């Protein structure tokens, strides 16, 4: 047993040394892919590695993304989408097929370090009116059986990312309770998580509290202290994160699971799309959050106990997300769509600032703009068409291109559509109102983008580059040593 433990320790140290990633790093990222300008997955994986990001949460199980993560040393959470819940809940065979297709094939062959399966995404949202509620526990039960069959149950854990509206409080965190209609299923979920050693995953967004409530104290959303602290008996709360977190702690305590570990599945701040969404605020919030987490200070109800993991939302901007909640939905990334850092940020993982993506396969440096020789009186329908297909949210109040004038607005809209259409010359016609230029029309902070050629496979694949080729091979060896020892230990 001593030899086995020493071998396992050596393997883990070898992985951490080669990957350049701290083994116990708590800060991860969400990687969403709702974009028409998707950088090749290999480029994104290398971006995470360059920034020493060791944990990533996915919203599905995209094969291209998972292949790119093979051998990277990055711990992965894959997602069962809400649309898949019914079939998996109703059929053990469907669960077996999902695990085989999206977990076993990568852990067994591609050596992707899948640690968690997210069963649904915020399935208890009030707006869903309970449509997914009955599927969760049956789906988890079936997936667990599938993991047992695949000899992965002790390594891959299931979680359910919950929105913070699953619990509520009359006034202070100590009065936190789950919504009445969720009490039974939350008790079942907490029991499942406790028995398997998995955390309760919650998404917390102080930005939304500020955005949706004009009376919400702005300084309470951040981490520098507040002139409007919340007093709860002997505990005083100076920021919304601590108050929200401890409301969940109280709610879990009332169903008998007050010591269940908690992980933050999503948290962040957008950079535009609303008056309170800007680069300065995003940097202040995310840096304050990271400093808070890495200090291990904890919260009043869990002093000295930081969350199990924290996944920033998000890694990249996604310009195809719905803007029904607000224009800010497309601008949560700490990086722009092409992996360029928006602002200085120290993730607490070894780099003092963010490093940009390299070898991004951009389309040629050309743009579509309004033809200066044409009258723009009839341009409104063309702009509506362009903006219905492409992203124009930066043109509105709270956006980086707000106030650039009519010709600027038209040019921005035309170019957004042109780039989305991969620079098809026909997409810049607009009945003669558009023209292609080779001069960058960007103005100040308003950036006219050049799209990404996502038809090209990345020349920088995580395990194919000289950057990590040798160490990826060692990671593969160490991973299999680890898996073998786990199986031997359970035999």
Automatic annotation (TrEMBL):
> Can you tell which superkingdom this protein's organism belongs to?
Eukaryota
Chief location: membrane
Transmembrane ranges? Answer: 464-485
> What EC designation does it have?
3.2.1.39
Reactions the enzyme catalyzes: Hydrolysis of (1->3)-beta-D-glucosidic linkages in (1->3)-beta-D-glucans
GO MF assignments: glucan endo-1,3-beta-D-glucosidase activity
Recorded protein name is: glucan endo-1,3-beta-D-glucosidase
